[in-house]
From TrEMBL:
This is Peptidase A1 domain-containing protein. Disulfide bonds join 109-116, 274-278, 317-354. One of its GO terms (biological process) is proteolysis. It comes from the Eukaryota. InterPro entries: Aspartic_peptidase_A1, Aspartic_peptidase_AS, Aspartic_peptidase_N, Cathepsin_D, PEPTIDASE_A1, Peptidase_aspartic_dom_sf. It comes from Sphaeramia orbicularis. Pfam families: A1_Propeptide, Asp. The chain crosses the membrane at residues 6-27. Residues 78-395 form the Peptidase A1 domain. Belongs to the peptidase A1 family. Gene3D superfamilies: 2.60.40.1960, Acid Proteases. PANTHER family: BETA-SITE APP-CLEAVING ENZYME, ISOFORM A-RELATED, NAPSIN-A.
Length: 398
């Protein structure tokens, strides 16, 4: 009888629909490397010398490499768990919307690679689903270049298994940066166009295999330092419990990083930056808000911040309540950050200091000039990355 068949068909559809659920990945927060270095009382000079001696001098000619990574791992703070292989080998990775490759340290890493000794390493011999590839890759990070070779295996993110995923086995990691990092590797979530060695990014593989109800992902970053969980990455959907009001969407202007148009940036009523509009990328792998040197210098002057070391600026903690609001005009809507939002209270050598959440960096053409909206912004505004419609959505975080 037809109605019964129809009913069974509908029940079947519901079961299929239910099996494709959104995936929740808890994020943990760590102190940024920049702070760890300051805690240990290392001076910039010491750090620079270390970076020089441990960084690789011979980096691949820049022509065959995509634009240098913008994420500054000195500031990376939020990471989560993934596993690779069968049986699963666990790794903590930085989920990074500012790059497109997945890499983890390799069991074949070089003896001189300090980072390798202190992190978990992928061992292909222990995985029954390993697929040999061997293509060499290198990713430039500032001074040195991270290099190794490509392999394939099953990558699992909170229960979502992506089979035959290609990733980098890192054999050489430059400088001290990765050695002190709390994460083992990086899982890039930007567009395939900036993927090194033309590897299909993990999220694109999930899209192709139709593993998610919608081809979107969203980041919630908790601003409560005492919270047990630092935040949550949701694959395949959004969660209204994390934000208030409606999501405000703006189109991606260039499908490489998650790049959008900003109309202007206002500092109180005294200063307008990005006057004739500018480009910005939304980057979970950067903890601060980064802007062109000249503009950030003017901003710091306006808020009375003084230069500290390593590009950091200090603000008198007592002045926080009277600091001007910094407003970002995006897609015809103002996104405001108060002093409480953009100043970070940190402890250094036992005393508490207040640091500006803004940092100056000139990103040269063709990629730049660019602003980078990092965790300081994403913490205040729940962010949705939509690959179906190539757009980014923001709503005030709860």
């Amino acid at each position: 009888d037809m109605t019964r068949l129809n009913l069974l068909y509908i029940v079947g559809l519901l079961l299929v629909a239910q099996s494709i659920a959104i995936i929740r990945v808890p994020l943990h927060k760590t102190r940024s490397l920049r702070r760890l270095m300051s805690d240990n009382g290392m001076s910039v000079e010491e750090l620079r010398t270390l970076a020089k001696t441990t960084g690789s001098a011979d980096s691949t000619p820049s022509s065959d490499l995509p634009v240098e990574r913008l994420t500054n791992f000195m500031d990376a703070q939020y990471y989560g768990e993934i596993s690779i292989g069968t049986p699963p080998q666990d790794f903590t990775v930085l989920f990074d919307t500012g790059s497109s490759n997945l890499w983890v340290p390799s069991v074949h890493c070089s003896f001189f690679d300090i980072a390798c000794w202190v992190h978990r390493r992928y061992n292909s011999k222990k995985s029954s689903t390993y697929i040999k590839n061997g293509t060499e890759f290198s990713i430039r990070y500032g001074r040195g270049s991270l290099s190794g070779f490509i392999s394939g295996d099953t990558v699992s993110v909170a229960g979502m298994a992506v089979s035959k995923q290609q990733f980098g086995e890192a054999v050489k990691q430059p400088g001290i940066t990765f050695a002190v990092a709390r994460f083992d590797g990086v899982l890039g979530m930007a567009y395939p166009s900036i993927s090194v060695a033309k590897v299909t990014p993990v999220f694109d593989s999930a899209m192709e295999a139709k593993l998610l109800p919608q081809n979107i992902f969203s980041f919630y970053i908790s601003r409560d330092p005492a919270a047990a969980v630092g935040g949550e990455l949701i694959l395949g959907g959004t969660d209204p419990q994390y934000y208030t009001g409606d999501l405000h969407y703006v189109n991606v202007t260039r499908k490489a990083y998650w790049q959008i148009q900003m109309d202007r940036v206002e500092v109180g009523n005294q200063l307008t930056l990005c006057k004739s509009g500018c480009q910005a990328i939304v980057d979970t792998g950067t903890s601060l808000i980064v802007g062109p040197v000249e503009e950030i210098r003017a901003l710091h002057k306006a808020i009375g911040a003084l230069p500290l070391l390593m590009g950091e600026y200090m603000i008198d903690c007592k002045k926080i309540p009277s600091l001007p609001v910094v407003s970002f005009s995006i897609g015809g809507k103002m996104f405001n950050l108060t002093g409480e939002d953009y100043v970070m209270k940190e402890s250094q050598m036992g005393t508490s200091i207040c640091l500006s959440g803004f940092m100056a960096m000139d990103i040269p053409p063709p990629a730049g000039p660019l602003w980078i909206l990092g965790d300081v912004f994403i913490g205040k505004y729940y962010t949705v990355f939509d690959r179906n419609a190539d757009r980014v959505g923001f709503a005030p975080a709860k």
